[in-house]
Amino acid sequence: MTAIIYGSPCESMRKAVKWFEKNNISYIERNILANPLNVQELQKILELTSEGTDEIIATRSKIYKELNLDFDTLTLLELLNLIEKHPTLLRNPIVVDNKRMMVGYNEDDIRKFIPRKVRKRQWLQLQMESLNC
To answer: pTM here?
Structure first.
């Protein structure tokens, strides 16, 4: 399963890419400034959220402040069209696969993208090491 790392060039994006490379996990990097997400892609990301649009909107971004909108009054389609037009409204990076999502870079949370077999093998290895102490 290939993960997709959506974002614009920044330190968090670089950390996520580096982590996937270090762990030999297949990924696709997508610069949302050069290739913005469309409404359908944004809907698929929203399906993976637990907090809806609040989870993916960058409320501290320059464009969020410049737009000076009451985002709570927008319909979902209006918001998704606005994000399509202004991709920097999205938090950075957003990492997804078919089942999981992570917003921002978090060293602990990103581990959920390690395949289950690999995580189990790592856990067993740690158990064996602790028994040998």
So the answer is: 0.86
